[in-house]
Amino acid sequence: MQAEYVLFNLVILSGPMFLSFLRPTYFLHRWKAAWWSVAIVALPYLAWDSWVTGSHWFFNAQYTLPFRLAGLPLGEILFFFGVPFACLFSWETLFKPTPQPSRVEWLRSVRSVGIFVLVPLGVALYAWGKQYTGLVCLALASAAWFDRWIESDLLLMPRFYGFLLMVIGLTVIFNGYLTARPIVTYDAAFQLDLRLGTIPIEDFFFGISHVIWCGALFEWLKLRYPSEVAYPSTHRMVERSPSVLEVSPSPR
Question: What is the pLDDT of residues 185-205, one digit of tens each?
Answer without folding.
Answer: 999 999 999 999 999 999 999
